[in-house]
Structure formats: C-alpha cells, structure tokens
UniProtKB/TrEMBL annotation:
It is a single-pass type I membrane protein. It is found in: Cell membrane; Cell projection, Invadopodium membrane; Cell projection, Lamellipodium; Cell projection, Ruffle membrane. One of its GO terms (biological process) is integrin-mediated signaling pathway. This is Integrin beta. One of its GO terms (molecular function) is metal ion binding. Coiled coil: none annotated. Residues 85-107 are annotated as: Disordered. One of its GO terms (cellular component) is ruffle membrane. Residues 36-464 form the Integrin beta subunit VWA domain. It comes from Sander lucioperca (Pike-perch). Belongs to the integrin beta chain family. Residues 97-107 have a biased composition (Basic and acidic residues). The gene is LOC116044937. The chain crosses the membrane at residues 729-751. It comes from the Eukaryota.
Amino acid sequence: LPFFSELMLNCVSSSQLKATLSLSEGSICIKANAQSCGECIQVAETCGWCNFLTVGESKSARCDDLESLKKRNCAVTKIENPRGSINIDKNNPVTNRKKDGSDKLKPEQITQIQPQKLTLTLRSGEPQTFELKFKRAEDYPIDLYYLMDLSFSMKDDLENVKNLGTDLMKEMQEITSDFRIGFGSFVEKTVMPYISTTPARLINPCTGNQNCTSPFSYKNVLKLTDKGDEFNRLVSQQQISGNLDSPEGGFDAIMQVAVCENQIGWRNVTRLLVFSTDAGFHFAGDGKLGGIVLPNDGRCHLENNMYTMSHYYDYPSIAHLVQKLSDNNIQTIFAVTEEFQPVYKELKNLIPKSAVGTLSSNSSNVIKLIIDAYNSLSSEVILENNRLPEGVSITYKSICKNGVEGTGENGRKCSNISIGDEVSFKISIESQKCPAIGKTEVIKIKPQGFTEEVQIVLNFICDCQCATKGEPNSDKCYEGNGTFECGACKCNEGRIGRLCECSKDEVRTEDLDANCRKDNGTDICSNNGDCVCGTCECKKRENPAEIYSGKYCECDNFNCDRSNNKLCGGHGRCECRKCICDANYTGSACDCSLETSTCLAKNGQICNGRGTCECGLCKCTNPKFQGPTCEICPTCPGVCAEHKDCVQCRAFEAGEKKDTCKRDCSYFHLIKVQDRNSLPQPTDQSFPLTHCKERDANDCWFYYTYAIRNDTKEVYVMEHLDCPAGPDIIPIVAGVVAGIVLIGLALLLIWKLLMIIHDRREFAKFEKEKMNAKWDTGENPIYKSAVTTVVNPKYEGK
C-alpha cells in the first residue's frame, strides 16, 4: 500500500515540476542528479537535502541550494546541511625561555610551534581554516657535523680545521649553551677509475715523498659531542688521501650522515651539516664508470664508522638526497671555494633549507662562514607538508614580522626572523570528495629543518546524520528493494528508480532498451537521458531553463543556431533544435530581416537599382558597384563621362557614337533648352540631379543635366554649343614683328655699350703705360762707327 500511495504522487502535471525547478536556476546541486543525501552534500558546500518530498518531484530534486529549498517551502528543520568543524587536541604554548635563565630544558620540552595536533571534519567544498604560530626559541640546542673532503688538494685546509672544535664552541656560546660538534671525512669510491688500484697506490695514493693515508669513501671520525678538545685531538690525527679524478664522492658521505642517526648521534634539535670541499661531486649514474649499476638504497651501511658499500651501490641522486635530508630535518651548509660557487649555488636551489658560503683557499674563514650561514638559515621559516590525500588541497597565508603578509608560495614562509620573534600562518584545508577507502586521513605540517610538526587528523563527512536512522528493506520502497533514509529510497545494489521499482538487469535488456532508441538507432535516449524501465528520463541541466525533451530526449531548447552570440539571433525561440522566428525575420538563426529600409539608396531606389535586398543588406548584381546600397563605384568614370557620347550624338549628331546613336543611346528622354539658366537646378528637384560640362573634338563646350525620376532617365541639354571665338591674326603678326625688331635693337644697343666700355679700358691702359715709360738718350748699342783707329805699339809719343 505505501508503494501505490507513493506511486500516485507521480500523477501530476509536468508544468508543476518545471515551475518548481525554475526556482533553482543556475544551481549545480540540481545538475548533479544526486540520488541520496550523502551524494548531495558532496556536490558543493551550498547544497542541502530536503527530507520532505513535494508531490511530483524526483529524488534528485531534493538536492538544491539552501535558498531554493526554502523558497520551495522546505522547512529549515527538514533540511540536511552538515558543516565541517575544527577541534584542537593538543595546544601547548610556545616556549618563552631566556639563554641566561636558570631553567634548563630538554630538547623535547621546548615548543616552537603551536598547536601540535588538530582534528578537522571536512565537508566537500567547504575549507577549514586554522592559525599556526611559530616562535624561534632562545638558546635552542644545535648539533653540527663537519664533513670534510680529505683529497690531496685540501691538505692546507686540514691544518686550519684541527682547532675548529674549541674555536667554534666559543663562537656558538653566543647562540646556544647546548652545542655539540662531530667530524667526518670522505674521498672517493675505492674502485677504478676513481682511484688507482695498484697495490702501492692503495697504500699511499700520493706521489713524490708525500705521506698519505689509504683512500676511502666515507669515515665517521667523531660522533657528535660537546667536547671541543676531543674534536681537535681526533682531527689532528687525520691524514690527507688522494684520488684520480676531480669530482669527489661527497654525495655518498652526505647520504650516510643523513640516514645513520644513531652512529652520528643526531638529537631532535637543530641539525646542521657543514660540507667542505674544493671540488665538484659525482651523482647518480656516474657509478657506471666503475661498473657499479645498483642505485643507492638510502640506508645506513657504516661498519666500524666506515662506509662499506661504496663499491656496491651507485652515488645517490640529488632528489634522493633532498628526500633524506628533509626526512631527517638536516640543514646543509656548503663551504666551497670560489671556483665552485656557481655549481653549489645551483645545488642549493634544489635542496631546501641549505646555504652556500665561500671558503678561503686554506679554510681560514670557516668559523665565520658557519656562523653567517646558520644565521641565514635560522632567520627563515618555511612550512612544508607531507603528501596530501587524493582530493584534498591546502593553502597558506603568512603573517610575518611587522605585519607583512604573503600568499601562494610566499604564504609558506617568513624571512628575517630573529630569536624570540613570533609569526603566524593561516592554513586552509579543503576536500573535494570523500576518500575511496576509509574516512580518516592524517597529514603533517612542519617547518623545514625543524623536528617539531603539527599532526592533523582529517575526518570526512560522507553522509548525512539522517542516514543513521534509515530503514533497511523498507516497505516504503518497492518490495523492500531499498533503504528508506532522509525521506527517500536509497536503492539496494542492482535496483533503480524513485522507489527502486526497476532492476538494472532488466533495464539493460535489449527489449527494454529498444524502447529508448529512436529509429532503431544505437544511442539510448539520444545520449541525453537514462532509460529507466523502458522509458527515457531526460537529464537535467545546470540551468533548468535549458530542457531536454521528447520521447527519446532528442529535443532541446538551447542547441539552435546562433547569431551575434544570441540564440536564434534574439529574434525567435528554440524548439527541438530549430528556430521559430518572430515576424519580419527568417533564416536558420532568425538573423535575416525582411525589412528593406536599410537598403534604400540616396536616390530612393532599393540598392541604387544595381542590386537586390536580402536580409536587410544589399547584394550588388553589377560587380562594379559596391557599398551598403550599391552606390560606390571605384572604377566607374562618372555620370557625366558615362553619358557624354550619347548626349552629344542625340543633341548635336556628332561624337564617337554618331553612327550607332539610335541603337546605343535611346535609353533616356532628351529635352533641349535655350540657355544654361533654363537647365534644372538641384534645389528645384526632389530627386538626385547631376550637372555636366563636356567638350567636343572642336573644343566646344556643351552643358546638360542627368537625373532619374520615377524610373525614367531624363537629360536636359543646352541646344547651342559654347565655342570659343577664333584668334585675330593681324595683331598677332604685328606683335611678333614688333617684338623681333625690339629684341634686335636691344641686342645692338647692348653690343654697342659693351664695345664702348672695352675701348675706354684699352685707352686708359695705354695712357698709363705711356706715363710710366723712361727714354734712354745714350748711344745706340747697335751703332758701329765707320772710323777705325790703330795704335802703333812702338810709338812712344815722339
């Protein structure tokens, strides 16, 4: 009886159901098609489940956003809407401790992070946020392990490190009163080609008279201790060794220091590893050179403080080292020479909570380097978490010193923190779904390089409280095929339907499925619905205004053609994927207007008489014309030039078309007028008019107008040609002759003037030379006298 009474509720109009769903427009809760309260609350935090079933509604209609449920008259007491919560299980305050205080606390008694344990109850889509505090404790214990390269190039460095223990102890007293130091050394794998395996070289790998110890991979010389003089004594006993290649086997040593906690003596305090070298490093894959192919297993292999498996396992990879250093909360300081700074700075970027310092050529600055690197590392706190369960996400927001806030990746860290400073983080954890197995998960959050951590237990809300009161195999479900919980039937395995009235096995049979296939096709319910007991139940959309319909869910009202990104162009409605257009519109997307007003040209014609109006736009039939109304013709000569020859032949029986005038030029009505003033004027006409002025072969002008009135082309032409008067020959000839004569006279005058000027210059020159002449009055040099006088040399004048 309960089944039939419940079944009667289905006999209601579909319009009532649509009216109800319209209240939930845009709800993702409706779209989820949830069949139970547990499925509903996992859709989103805004979804609620109504325990009261309204007549005619399906089970999935119970799941909706809270406001919509209230509008549908679902009482608040009938709505299932469980919320998440936060419970702090352990909340010890951070330690306020002074270095010079009398209270001495063990490392495990010091608290730097608060709270320490929480339990979060998560609902899908609802984040839970809590605050985490971190405070750097003063006088916090420190363990420092000094790992040194003892290849031959580090000989002078070893001398400066021998007193490092006591000197570093004094410096670290300024930071902490609880400091321990240890020492280890490394060289290289003890196989070819990294070292020479000749017997003599295995005893002393150095050349010349140098006395070196046998090569080794890694040696733990001194376990962590608070005795600085013991460090000095043991380090002073160390000897340099040697190898063949430049890169060293430091990664093997780092791995053993990280994983051999008991042998090294690490405590749960600040752990520092100082890696000192003047060379590069081998990493995973380099072991193949020595025939070593087994990957590093990341386990401790120290026997008598010596690494014994260097010849068996390859070098560790960088990622493997990062994992082990992080797991063991070890902060690394790379003390390397200037030459290898770029290499180790790149390595620092890959290893969290690490620093690089420049080591002098003889390690004389190692203490200052360690202090500076420690201050740099300890001044920054970076939170990290272990692997999150599937579907769980976490976000951080930091509130650092001076109120500086950070989000995203910067939300994980705070910098420039001094001892005693307190910073906080807002941490939000959100789940998107329930875990597949179990309902409890544990995640841990801790600052990098610190042993303290926050343990977070995650409980997931996967079902509603009302589900605990369910009635298994209830009579309210068809033949007891379901559990009646939260006001609806939750069907047993293999059953479906509102009241679990159908069997999945029956529904999947070919006979029942055939009733859900259109035209014997292969798609069930057109892939837009489910075949329930041989009848298609169409899927619901996120927007209930969008509806699948039809016997086979083959129709919908949202998949019609669109125009301007509007369904049916905004001028129609979509019915079964076809547009039903409004008046004056047509086309598949109702984007074709039947109005012609937009096609009218300036002359009042549709598309200027040179095209057709389609969908409110002109399609020009003459390819020469274009534009929105076919009025633009870039290649046309113009109206006047186009009709010139025809007007000339009809009005004056002349021109190029004189012989074909009747055939080619009878397309217009010609009207002759007496003068230009008689031509139609533009202001007198209610239609477009063009005035033309053209010239014939005899240089005579003729004037006419061209217009189209009532589809009739009219040409008004002035009946007389306007020819220019002929030239007057006599004045022209007289003017030319007079011009020639005048030009000749001008040329003669110019010539005469030039000659006068030239003569005067020559005369002036002559006069000047005459004035300067000096006449000689002596004897003519070419004159010879006719008289010859001969003197007798014997004549004495007697």
